[in-house]
Input
Amino acid sequence: MQQKNILWNALVGLLVVVCVGCASGPSAQVPRVSLAGLGPNSPLGPNTQEFILEVKSGDSVPLSMGTAGSLFSAEGLEGSLVAKRDMWLWMAKSGIQISFDGVSFEPLSDAVQGSLDVGTAANEQGVSVKVKLQADPR
Output
């Protein structure tokens, strides 16, 4: 369960492009694990301080979204987040960094740009809310 929370936090960080960067790259001793390698047989232990998560093009992660607050509630906002390219996420206490070659890492805020658009639409079927998240390498 803790590993799923770490993964989810990494992906949310990537999507909203929020990061506290580190000044240097990971050492050769930092464990690397694929997205598929997370789970009960993961090589990561409960005391793992940092690791590199390898995400391959086509890998998918369940996506569940919800609402909070006293104005609205939402149910059934589920799907999959699918990687469109290979990337590596260096997860450490000091923050998350990303690499597109598995070697050179930089803070998410330096490597990725993005936007979040929220709007409404109305037609003969009624009113709908549209949410669009865009993330691209800089």
In short: The longest strand covers residues 112-123. The chain is about 15% helix and 40% strand. The chain has one domain: 2-111. Residues 57 and 98 are 15 Å apart (CA to CA).
